[in-house]
Specification:
single chain, mainly alpha, three-stranded antiparallel sheet, 3 strands
Length: 100
């Protein structure tokens, strides 16, 4: 009767080398998983913070708040911060331009 302990090999590996090896394996597995999801069409949605939205789309923070209040854009709360989907900001910009 063989147990897992019979197959265990111990070797002196410095802690920093062991941690580096573990990080590398975890990183490779995550990248493989992300690539797999992308190839299956299961991409992740990218969110922007309010500051990123204001800078990228050249609007002010009060304008963004007004759009949120008026229902032009939806904010997504992640922990304590609000985030926005870039596609929804594009749609709001088009709607604002059309109404001008």
């Amino acid at each position: 009767m063989s147990s897992e302990m019979d197959n265990m090999i111990l070797s002196p590996v410095p802690m920093d080398k062991l941690l580096q090896s573990i990080r590398q394996v975890v990183k490779e597995e995550i990248q493989a998983s992300l690539l797999s999801k992308k190839s299956k069409g299961e991409g992740f949605t990218h969110y922007l913070s309010g500051k990123e939205v204001a800078a990228r789309f050249k609007i002010t923070s009060p304008t963004l708040r007004a759009w949120r209040r008026d229902g032009l854009v939806k904010a997504y709360r992640i922990r304590r911060k609000l985030y926005y989907k870039p596609a929804e900001i594009h749609s709001a910009l088009k709607e604002v331009i059309v109404t001008i």
